Amino acid sequence: MADAPISPRTKIVCTLGPASSNREMISALMDAGMNVARLNFSHGEHSTHAQNIAIIRELSREKNKPVAILQDLQGPKIRVGKLRGGSTTLTKGQQITLVFGLEQTDDNIPIDYRELASDTHVGAKILLDDGLLGMTVVGIRDSMVDCQVVHGGLLKSRKGVNFPDSNLSIPSTTEKDTRDLLFGVSQGVDYVALSFVRTAADVLKLKQMLRALGSDIPVVSKIEMLSAVENIEDICKVSDAIMVARGDLGVECGFANVSAYQKRIVRAARSHGKPVIVATQMLDSMIENHVPTKAEISDVANAVFDLADATMLSGESASGRHPSHVVNTMRDILSRVEESGMLLPGDENARIFTSTATPEVVARTAVELGDTCRASAIVCLTLTGNIARTVAKYRPQTPVIALSPRPDVVRKLSLVRGVVGLQNTMFFDTDGALHEIAKAIVKRGLAREGDLLVITGGIPLASMQPTNLIKLHRVSKEDVL
Asked: Does 2.60.120.260 match the CATH number of domain 84-162?
């Protein structure tokens, strides 16, 4: 049976968790349209993650479907300590004192951040429990921070704490992250996501750690801090991909600002040719419900209209009642928006790249040829995947097929919008290459007799030279035999 059509071009990232950490459900997620499996290292043991990785790799081989694995590092998480009785009620106008500590020993509220008093200041906001509770700093006494409650409610032990007005000295990677990174490298994950990114230096530090481990795993920078939004251009330059982490971003920057910041981040990532994921609460109501809200459908559609590379499911696929149904729903929304005729991939933001480097010129030309000639696909012969990513950043209307002998490259391309990666270990001689390429694509159900293919590669093909060739090829009867 032929493979599924290339649509949707927008990829789907699924978080694995208690509801989806078994072979049957992971298989169902892959069949429903999962392109990237996210392993959240804020939860779960290494043994569980290793089991999921093994299942994904095995199923990928069986189904002949590449699925990338994204390791999401926890990063520094500041939390309320253990409260007496497990909780306390805060009321508006109440004066309370925050202190460094892991457990409550008096009437003060313990916070597990040692630099609490030195990193904040009078007038700064402090938010707790994803921003549901809020207070303002009114005084600092040695190691104690006096606050006045602005938004009250029930505060439970171990709830998260955010400091949107403070420049924290906490590093972006912790000892736990280092241990998790060692595990991820040993398991051969395809991407590593870095939390708490504030500047490009945070990304470069992680890349330095990876190099020290002998790895070049691409880094996904999670944009969830106001400082990261302010430094987004520099962060995009050194990152391999970007994630709009809208949960903490809303807490840190104000929920009313999230939509505008999302567009700003997506635009910046695209202008630098970096894949970008829109994440958090996209179909959140479907954790319990069978159908999404109209607002959620519009939210997903908005990411597609922005031409983001991927949309992400978190609790919906990790702990929801019907993970595979949620992925099917997401895929249906993505496909319908893409097929609506309302996307404008040729807008000026999609074609702002002006580099005169040969691969860039080839990519731009291939996109123009594919769109103008109504080709069925742009076929990229690639060892590293770079030419496919370069073509994809121009957001062609024509689907992109990348042929590479490297399975890791094929998996990584699972995050890139509009790209279908196929592993092909054959090295072609120039004379017979076009027919062999066409046959491989026809066999996968991605082209048929009479279709026009725009093929990019490097001459001589057998030695996988840097891309320097564009060829138009009409699929012939010989190609389909």
From this structure: no
Q: Please list the alpha-helical segments (H only) found in 151-257.
A: 175-187, 200-212, 226-230, 232-238, 246-253
Amino acid 477: pLDDT: 85
Q: Return the structure tokens found at 32.
A: 């429903």
Q: Which of 5, 15, 9 is nearest to 303 (CA)?
A: 9
- Which residue, chain included where needed, has tokens 């073509």? 391
Check whether the bond before 5 is cis (ω within 30° of 0): no
Write the CATH number of the domain with boundaries 11-75+171-338. Answer: 3.20.20.60
The Cα angle at residue 300 between residues 275 and 420, in degrees rounded to 5: 45
Q: Is the per-residue pLDDT at 429 higher than 80?
A: no
Is the bond into 218 cis (omega within 30 degrees of 0)?
no
Torsion of CA 203, 209, 211, 212, to 10 degrees: 160
- Helical (H) or strand (E) element with 334: helix 323-338
How does pLDDT run across 114-160, given as a tens digit for each residue? 999 999 999 999 999 988 999 999 999 999 999 999 999 999 999 99
387, amino acid identity:
I
Q: What's the confidence (pLDDT) of residue 430?
A: 52
CATH superfamily of 348-480: Pyruvate kinase, C-terminal domain (3.40.1380.20)
E strand spans, 17-108: 36-40, 68-72, 87-90, 95-100
54 C-beta neighbours (distance < 10 Å), count: 12
Can you tell me the mean pLDDT for 6-24?
93
Asked if the model's pLDDT at residue 387 lies above 80, the reply is yes
Least confident of 38-52, 225-239, 399-413, 461-475: 461-475
What are the residue numbers of the active site?
38, 79, 222, 280
Residue 455's SS3 state is strand
Domain with CATH 3.20.20.60 in the chain: 11-75+171-338
Numbered ranges of CATH 2.40.33.10 in the chain: 84-162
Taking the C-alpha atoms of residue 15 and residue 35, their distance in angstroms, rounded to an integer, is 11
